[in-house]
Amino acid sequence: MKNKCTIIEAAKKVLSTTNGFMSVTEIYTQILEHSLYVFHAQDPISVLRGELRSHSVGIDFPTASSKKYFFYDESQRRFRLLGSENRTVRKNGKEQVSLRTVREMHHEYVDAFRLKILNQLKCLNPYEFEKFCMNLLEVYGFIDLSVTQKSRDGGIDGFGKLKIGLAYMNVAFQCKRWNTGVVARKEIDAFRGAIQGEYEQGIFFTTSSFTKEAMNYSIKQGAVPVILIDGNMIVDFMIEKQFGIEHENLPIYINALDQILS
């Protein structure tokens, strides 16, 4: 049977029916139910996933397509349509971009930008990520910061001090640059055990995320508190402090002539 459209065209038709995200399996199921495409591969879901990723903003690899139609939410592993088909309206035969469209485009740009920054952090080697975390803490007022030597880290990647009132609090930090998987409670417990008795607070960085159990036990009565900072929070901090990030203020003009003529 000859297909009337490509895999990407079929996926776009499915995603155009919703404003939200869909998983690869959900998209695949809808494609089959509506007979939009017939897959002949042994693992059609993997083929579909590869095509979707190739055409998603913020995902760059050597064979990725330059044409982008989708946005990929890495934390949920779900896709949505960028909605480029509806970005313009016509007036007097000319295309005009609406204010609502500009806002939607900005939202899409920010989502893609955040994902790109997070992917760049995941590409750092472990030592570079430790140095990055140390420099980020310095921006937030930590002093006397240092990254430990690998042979002597004892489960601690770095340490420093933070002034609280008239006193200084000794702080240690751990850095996990992970591309896949989530940080479990055992990692938090091991880090806490390494700093107990010598430091008043621990900070655990990861480019990934934390399990619910890890988050529940980060603050434990009678034990050193451990602040958990995942990949999305790191990007938030970078944007807040403009740390490794620059921004431009682009003015958006809104017609308010009627207000001065009324």
From TrEMBL:
This is Restriction endonuclease. The keyword Nuclease applies. Residues 124-238 form the Restriction endonuclease type IV Mrr domain. It comes from the Bacteria. GO terms for biological process: DNA restriction-modification system. The keyword Lyase does not apply. The lineage of its organism: Bacteria, Pseudomonadati, Bacteroidota, Bacteroidia, Bacteroidales. It comes from Bacteroides xylanisolvens. GO terms for molecular function: DNA binding; restriction endodeoxyribonuclease activity. Keywords: Endonuclease, Hydrolase, Nuclease.
